[in-house]
Amino acid sequence: MGCHAEISPEMVPANFRCGQCGELLDIIYPPQDKLPAELRAAWLSRRVSRSSIDESGVWRFREALPILADLQNVVTLQEGNTPLYAMPRCAKFGGVNLLWGKHQGMNPTGSFKDAGMTAAISVAKERGASWVACASTGNTSAAMAAYAARAGMRALVLIPEGKIAWGKLAQTLDYGALTLQLRTDFDGCVKVLALLMGLAPIYLLNSVNPYRLEGQKTPAFEIAEQMDWQAPDHLIVPGGNLANSSALGMGFAQMLEWGLIEKLPRISVIQAEGANPLFASWRDHDGKELSPVAANTRATAIRIGNPASWKKAVRVLRATGGHVEQVSEAEIALAKAEIGAEGIGCEPASAVTLAGLRKLARQGKVQPEEKIVLLLTGHVLKDPEYTLDFHQQKLLTETEKASLIAEDKTEVRRLARAPQVVDATADAVMRALEAKAQEAPQ
Ligand code: F0G
After folding, report:
1. Among the atoms of ligand 1, which is closest to the Cα of residue 240?
2. pTM strictly above 0.85
């Protein structure tokens, strides 16, 4: 918990920070008087209800997030209830026996942000906000723009110019947000937004908003439910601004406290090598201090050098015995292609989880018999340019490729499937088919 946890609406300051210590606030929830069995039954029964709040995979767990005075204010796009896919192929690649992917990319706007956004936009609506705003690497802004449009609010989006995936930019435009591409990076966008807070009547929807985390903790409830109320041994999440790892940690802690699960999963965070401030903090300062870095990675969603929620993430890592690892650009690209080859697919930032798992397994920090869940945060169609570049072997530089071990270099070549242009004849297609049939299946 933060220094001062608040739930009373009028006491929550606009910057969501404690007036005394300056730390980010957490929401506190009242004790639960229902029995675990009653809660489980109520949550499950809502899956067959036709009421819109029951159809939401966030609001069907509403006892766990009592953040609205009136449920009429819920703004929902039927988010959540996402699949937990078994990933036998990726398990082998990662060096473990049992692996699942919780695919948060299967949300209405294609990322895990929807679960948090339904919660925070509903609060914004209840408080009478007319403008909402965020700085984003692309997914938060897509989600905010969509939910603001549904709520009849206006949306201001600040994104780094040239450093977000096209799919995400296209979404914010389509959902009607005022989209400003600032000539800076994500961390620069956050600074401008902070300055704006005192000047414009906007409601802040970055993940420093604790109501976002309330929504983002619900995938933890879904995972537990999908695993018959057994927490997995290990949950692996990508780390950017570090709100998601915090939210999921809060979710599992709440379930443990309420007697819904018997143990916490270990929660590990994986960062890209070029955007690794938490990894460096954990390695060099035991997570006690964090030095911002100038971030650079093709996984643009997590191109973040000064993560706002790092202290919350460190608390979760400590409470669950989690690890922090970093992975290279080539490792991310290979892991993403493996997830694609499993028929699942995800955006680059999500693939750090599989690359990280493999590294942890090789270091002996993950045992083959552990039940492991990867949090796949974004849909494969968010960043088609990255995927096309990979398959046309234009993504990685020679130096990046050289960093891979021989076996992985071969795997990268084997997985790359550039589209072929052939004549419009059955003969030409047959030739391509026969050539492919000679190769071993992927
Ligand atoms: N994966 C994806 C696809 C993301 O979009 C993000 C963050 C993360 C992982 C990291 O999550 O920040 O909670 O540690 N995207 C934010 C955005 C920053 O603006 O869309 P985190």
Report:
1. 14
2. yes
